[in-house]
Amino acid sequence: MIRIVDHSLIFDDVLLLPDQSGILLKDIDLKTRLTQNLNLDIPLLSAAMDAVAQSCLGIDVSMTLIDRGKA
Hints:
Blueprint: E1 32-33, E2 39-40, H1 55-67
């Protein structure tokens, strides 16, 4: 099923400024949901472009997921 995202941001849309935060480390969730049954515990996704991510990156990421029992 295709999901249409109403709002998205790219790198140039965001400016991070150093400052103190009231957010506790235990409250931070960096999980990335790839499919209904597959979540990554790290915020890592690569562009589906040969110039950005070659096949060796995809193989290495998938092997890491398999080694950690995530796939």
